[in-house]
Specification:
It is a single chain. The protein contains one helix and eight strands. The chain is of the alpha+beta class. It has two domains: 30 residues; 93 residues, Immunoglobulin-like, CATH 2.60.40.1220. β7 and β8 form a beta hairpin. The longest helix is centred in the first third of the chain and has 27 residues. About 9% of the residues have low confidence.
């Protein structure tokens, strides 16, 4: 009976430890909360693309680029993490022609964990 009690405590302790480790790993990565222009949107030519993430970014390693339908990068400016709101990154755009554009983002959390993704929008 005593060994069964110890085994139960060990299983509960292990489950708690795994839950805490998993929760910490999930919080270590940042993901987009809002995107302007939004994914799939059709918009007038925007002056910038801005993404707000669910946690602070490491400015030196986070990036944002925009490409046209042929895959050519259209932004000449480098993306900048907002110094007042470090969960936001934006890149200025030149005047865009009608067509499809793809936003490519790399977000490095302040603890060094990296996520990345793409989404598209159309200019009318």
């Amino acid at each position: 009976m005593n060994s069964r009690h110890h085994l139960r405590r060990l299983v509960i302790w292990a489950a708690c430890a795994l839950s805490l480790a998993w929760a910490g790993a999930v919080r270590a990565h940042v993901f987009p909360r809002t995107q302007v222009p939004a994914a799939g949107a059709t918009v007038s030519p925007p002056g910038e693309v801005r993404i707000v993430f669910d946690g602070p970014l490491e400015p030196a390693f986070s990036s944002l680029t925009v490409t046209d339908a042929s895959g050519k990068q259209v932004n000449a400016a480098k993306a900048v993490v907002d110094s007042q709101h470090q969960e936001a990154i934006a890149v200025e755009l030149p005047p865009l022609k009608s067509g499809h554009y793809t936003v490519h983002w790399i977000a490095v959390a302040s603890d060094g964990h990296r996520t990345h993704g793409d989404y598209g929008f159309d200019v009318k």
